[in-house]
Amino acid sequence: MTEIIFLGTSGYVPTPERDNAAFLLKTGETSILVDCPGSPLRKLAAAGIKPLDVGSVFVTHVHADHVYGLPSLVHGLMLRDHVFRLFGSAESVDFCRRLLDLFGLREPKYKTRVEFVALAPGEKTAVAGGVDVTAWSVPHQTSSLAFEFRVGPGAKKVVFSGDTPIHPALFEWARGADALVHDCGAPARFFEKFPVLKSVHTSALDLGEWSERAGVRLLAPVHFLTELDFEVGEMEKEIRTRFTGRLFMPSDGERVAVE
Ligand SMILES: [Zn+2]
Ligand SMILES: [Zn+2]
User: Which domains does the chain have, with CATH numbers?
Assistant: First the structure.
Protein backbone atom coordinates (compact mmCIF):
# COMPACT_ATOMS: atom_id res chain seq x y z
CA MET A 1 0.00 0.00 0.00
CA THR A 2 1.18 3.49 -0.83
CA GLU A 3 0.02 6.46 1.20
CA ILE A 4 0.79 10.11 1.72
CA ILE A 5 0.89 11.38 5.29
CA PHE A 6 0.45 15.13 5.67
CA LEU A 7 2.81 16.26 8.44
CA GLY A 8 2.04 19.92 7.77
CA THR A 9 -0.25 21.77 5.35
CA SER A 10 0.24 25.49 5.97
CA GLY A 11 2.24 27.95 3.91
CA TYR A 12 5.02 30.02 5.43
CA VAL A 13 2.96 30.96 8.53
CA PRO A 14 2.24 28.06 10.88
CA THR A 15 -0.94 28.20 12.99
CA PRO A 16 -2.08 26.21 16.03
CA GLU A 17 -3.86 23.80 13.63
CA ARG A 18 -1.44 23.73 10.69
CA ASP A 19 2.34 23.59 10.63
CA ASN A 20 4.51 24.40 7.60
CA ALA A 21 4.05 22.01 4.67
CA ALA A 22 5.80 18.63 4.85
CA PHE A 23 4.82 15.13 3.76
CA LEU A 24 5.73 11.51 4.10
CA LEU A 25 5.42 9.20 1.11
CA LYS A 26 5.13 5.69 2.52
CA THR A 27 5.13 2.54 0.43
CA GLY A 28 5.77 -0.83 2.03
CA GLU A 29 8.86 -0.48 4.20
CA THR A 30 10.05 2.67 2.43
CA SER A 31 9.34 6.08 3.95
CA ILE A 32 10.36 9.27 2.17
CA LEU A 33 10.17 12.68 3.81
CA VAL A 34 9.38 15.60 1.48
CA ASP A 35 10.49 18.90 3.02
CA CYS A 36 11.65 19.34 6.57
CA PRO A 37 10.27 22.31 8.52
CA GLY A 38 9.21 22.54 12.15
CA SER A 39 9.88 19.72 14.53
CA PRO A 40 10.19 16.68 12.25
CA LEU A 41 10.83 14.10 14.99
CA ARG A 42 7.72 15.16 16.90
CA LYS A 43 5.57 14.99 13.78
CA LEU A 44 6.94 11.60 12.72
CA ALA A 45 6.26 10.27 16.23
CA ALA A 46 2.71 11.65 16.14
CA ALA A 47 2.19 9.87 12.81
CA GLY A 48 3.49 6.60 14.25
CA ILE A 49 6.58 6.57 12.01
CA LYS A 50 9.96 5.52 13.44
CA PRO A 51 12.52 8.11 12.31
CA LEU A 52 15.08 5.42 11.50
CA ASP A 53 12.58 4.00 8.98
CA VAL A 54 12.99 7.23 7.01
CA GLY A 55 16.00 6.85 4.75
CA SER A 56 15.39 9.66 2.27
CA VAL A 57 14.70 13.35 2.68
CA PHE A 58 13.69 15.45 -0.32
CA VAL A 59 13.98 19.24 -0.28
CA THR A 60 11.81 21.07 -2.82
CA HIS A 61 13.62 24.39 -2.29
CA VAL A 62 15.50 26.31 0.35
CA HIS A 63 13.00 28.81 1.64
CA ALA A 64 13.12 28.69 5.43
CA ASP A 65 9.65 27.15 5.82
CA HIS A 66 10.84 24.02 3.94
CA VAL A 67 14.25 23.32 5.53
CA TYR A 68 14.50 24.81 9.02
CA GLY A 69 13.77 21.48 10.71
CA LEU A 70 16.70 19.71 9.09
CA PRO A 71 19.28 20.53 11.79
CA SER A 72 16.78 19.41 14.42
CA LEU A 73 16.23 16.09 12.61
CA VAL A 74 19.95 15.28 12.55
CA HIS A 75 20.70 16.68 16.02
CA GLY A 76 17.85 14.71 17.58
CA LEU A 77 19.26 11.44 16.23
CA MET A 78 22.87 12.14 17.25
CA LEU A 79 23.19 8.83 19.14
CA ARG A 80 21.64 6.69 16.41
CA ASP A 81 23.68 4.98 13.73
CA HIS A 82 21.72 6.09 10.70
CA VAL A 83 22.16 7.53 7.22
CA PHE A 84 19.77 9.94 5.55
CA ARG A 85 20.11 10.49 1.82
CA LEU A 86 19.16 14.09 1.12
CA PHE A 87 17.92 14.85 -2.39
CA GLY A 88 17.38 18.22 -4.02
CA SER A 89 18.74 20.58 -6.64
CA ALA A 90 22.49 21.24 -6.56
CA GLU A 91 21.70 24.60 -4.94
CA SER A 92 19.44 23.03 -2.29
CA VAL A 93 21.94 20.28 -1.49
CA ASP A 94 24.77 22.78 -1.11
CA PHE A 95 22.61 24.99 1.11
CA CYS A 96 21.61 22.07 3.36
CA ARG A 97 25.23 20.97 3.72
CA ARG A 98 26.18 24.47 4.85
CA LEU A 99 23.14 24.66 7.14
CA LEU A 100 24.22 21.46 8.93
CA ASP A 101 27.82 22.69 9.09
CA LEU A 102 26.68 25.88 10.86
CA PHE A 103 25.69 23.61 13.75
CA GLY A 104 28.69 21.28 13.35
CA LEU A 105 26.27 18.43 12.66
CA ARG A 106 28.56 16.63 10.22
CA GLU A 107 31.28 16.16 12.84
CA PRO A 108 32.12 12.49 13.62
CA LYS A 109 30.56 12.62 17.11
CA TYR A 110 27.15 12.73 15.46
CA LYS A 111 26.32 9.15 14.53
CA THR A 112 23.51 10.06 12.13
CA ARG A 113 25.05 11.06 8.83
CA VAL A 114 23.68 12.73 5.73
CA GLU A 115 24.64 11.82 2.18
CA PHE A 116 23.83 14.46 -0.42
CA VAL A 117 22.36 13.64 -3.83
CA ALA A 118 22.06 16.52 -6.31
CA LEU A 119 19.33 15.81 -8.86
CA ALA A 120 19.59 17.01 -12.43
CA PRO A 121 16.19 17.98 -13.84
CA GLY A 122 14.76 15.32 -16.15
CA GLU A 123 17.03 12.46 -15.00
CA LYS A 124 15.46 9.42 -13.38
CA THR A 125 17.18 8.36 -10.14
CA ALA A 126 16.62 5.29 -7.96
CA VAL A 127 15.68 6.26 -4.38
CA ALA A 128 15.02 3.09 -2.34
CA GLY A 129 12.68 0.12 -2.18
CA GLY A 130 11.81 0.18 -5.88
CA VAL A 131 10.95 3.90 -5.82
CA ASP A 132 12.36 6.11 -8.60
CA VAL A 133 12.25 9.88 -8.82
CA THR A 134 12.53 12.40 -11.62
CA ALA A 135 12.98 16.03 -10.62
CA TRP A 136 11.70 18.99 -12.62
CA SER A 137 12.48 22.70 -12.28
CA VAL A 138 9.61 24.96 -11.28
CA PRO A 139 9.69 28.77 -11.30
CA HIS A 140 9.15 29.64 -7.60
CA GLN A 141 12.79 30.17 -6.57
CA THR A 142 16.20 29.37 -8.12
CA SER A 143 16.57 26.15 -6.11
CA SER A 144 13.01 24.90 -6.72
CA LEU A 145 12.25 21.39 -7.95
CA ALA A 146 9.05 19.38 -8.29
CA PHE A 147 9.37 15.62 -7.77
CA GLU A 148 7.72 12.87 -9.78
CA PHE A 149 7.95 9.58 -7.87
CA ARG A 150 7.27 6.20 -9.45
CA VAL A 151 6.21 3.88 -6.69
CA GLY A 152 5.70 0.16 -6.31
CA PRO A 153 4.97 -2.67 -8.73
CA GLY A 154 2.40 -0.65 -10.72
CA ALA A 155 4.83 2.30 -10.94
CA LYS A 156 2.17 4.62 -9.57
CA LYS A 157 2.91 8.25 -10.34
CA VAL A 158 2.97 10.57 -7.31
CA VAL A 159 3.94 14.20 -7.96
CA PHE A 160 4.87 16.87 -5.39
CA SER A 161 4.95 20.38 -6.86
CA GLY A 162 6.64 22.18 -3.97
CA ASP A 163 5.87 25.90 -3.95
CA THR A 164 5.08 27.12 -7.44
CA PRO A 165 2.77 29.29 -9.50
CA ILE A 166 0.89 27.51 -12.29
CA HIS A 167 3.61 25.99 -14.45
CA PRO A 168 2.06 24.42 -17.57
CA ALA A 169 4.97 21.97 -18.02
CA LEU A 170 4.32 20.55 -14.55
CA PHE A 171 0.85 19.49 -15.64
CA GLU A 172 2.42 17.62 -18.57
CA TRP A 173 4.69 15.76 -16.12
CA ALA A 174 1.65 15.18 -13.88
CA ARG A 175 -0.65 14.02 -16.71
CA GLY A 176 -2.73 11.10 -15.45
CA ALA A 177 -0.94 11.19 -12.07
CA ASP A 178 -2.25 8.77 -9.46
CA ALA A 179 -1.69 11.60 -6.96
CA LEU A 180 -0.70 15.26 -7.23
CA VAL A 181 0.22 17.20 -4.08
CA HIS A 182 0.24 20.79 -5.30
CA ASP A 183 0.70 24.33 -4.01
CA CYS A 184 -2.70 25.92 -3.38
CA GLY A 185 -2.17 29.25 -1.67
CA ALA A 186 -5.64 30.73 -1.44
CA PRO A 187 -8.95 31.33 -3.22
CA ALA A 188 -8.62 33.27 -6.51
CA ARG A 189 -9.95 36.53 -5.02
CA PHE A 190 -6.72 36.92 -3.00
CA PHE A 191 -4.64 36.64 -6.18
CA GLU A 192 -6.58 39.61 -7.56
CA LYS A 193 -6.04 41.53 -4.32
CA PHE A 194 -2.31 40.67 -4.09
CA PRO A 195 -1.08 40.19 -7.70
CA VAL A 196 2.44 39.41 -6.46
CA LEU A 197 1.11 36.00 -5.41
CA LYS A 198 0.62 35.04 -9.07
CA SER A 199 4.37 34.74 -9.63
CA VAL A 200 5.03 32.42 -6.66
CA HIS A 201 1.89 30.46 -5.70
CA THR A 202 -1.25 28.91 -7.22
CA SER A 203 -4.91 29.80 -6.66
CA ALA A 204 -7.52 27.15 -5.91
CA LEU A 205 -9.42 28.01 -9.10
CA ASP A 206 -6.37 27.62 -11.36
CA LEU A 207 -5.30 24.42 -9.60
CA GLY A 208 -8.72 22.86 -10.20
CA GLU A 209 -8.72 23.86 -13.85
CA TRP A 210 -5.21 22.64 -14.69
CA SER A 211 -5.59 19.41 -12.70
CA GLU A 212 -8.81 18.61 -14.57
CA ARG A 213 -7.13 19.15 -17.94
CA ALA A 214 -4.22 16.91 -16.89
CA GLY A 215 -6.55 14.09 -15.81
CA VAL A 216 -5.12 13.97 -12.29
CA ARG A 217 -6.74 11.08 -10.39
CA LEU A 218 -6.17 12.27 -6.80
CA LEU A 219 -5.52 15.95 -6.03
CA ALA A 220 -4.25 17.07 -2.63
CA PRO A 221 -3.93 20.86 -2.37
CA VAL A 222 -1.46 22.11 0.28
CA HIS A 223 0.58 25.12 1.49
CA PHE A 224 -2.44 27.17 2.49
CA LEU A 225 -1.65 30.86 3.10
CA THR A 226 -3.71 30.81 6.26
CA GLU A 227 -2.71 34.33 7.37
CA LEU A 228 -4.91 35.71 4.57
CA ASP A 229 -7.93 34.57 6.59
CA PHE A 230 -10.22 32.29 4.59
CA GLU A 231 -11.86 28.93 5.13
CA VAL A 232 -10.42 25.85 3.46
CA GLY A 233 -13.99 25.08 2.38
CA GLU A 234 -13.90 28.13 0.08
CA MET A 235 -10.90 26.67 -1.77
CA GLU A 236 -12.58 23.28 -1.93
CA LYS A 237 -15.66 24.85 -3.58
CA GLU A 238 -13.50 26.71 -6.10
CA ILE A 239 -11.55 23.60 -7.06
CA ARG A 240 -14.80 21.67 -7.43
CA THR A 241 -16.08 24.17 -10.01
CA ARG A 242 -13.34 22.85 -12.32
CA PHE A 243 -12.06 19.48 -11.05
CA THR A 244 -14.07 16.24 -11.20
CA GLY A 245 -11.46 13.74 -9.88
CA ARG A 246 -10.81 12.59 -6.34
CA LEU A 247 -10.11 15.62 -4.09
CA PHE A 248 -8.52 15.40 -0.65
CA MET A 249 -8.24 18.64 1.38
CA PRO A 250 -5.76 17.53 4.04
CA SER A 251 -5.47 18.55 7.66
CA ASP A 252 -2.22 18.05 9.55
CA GLY A 253 -1.70 14.42 10.54
CA GLU A 254 -4.16 13.04 7.99
CA ARG A 255 -3.20 10.39 5.45
CA VAL A 256 -4.58 9.33 2.11
CA ALA A 257 -4.07 6.11 0.16
CA VAL A 258 -2.77 6.29 -3.40
CA GLU A 259 -5.01 3.86 -5.29
ZN1 LIG B 1 6.71 27.62 1.34
ZN1 LIG C 1 8.83 28.93 -1.05
Answer: 2-248 (3.60.15.10)
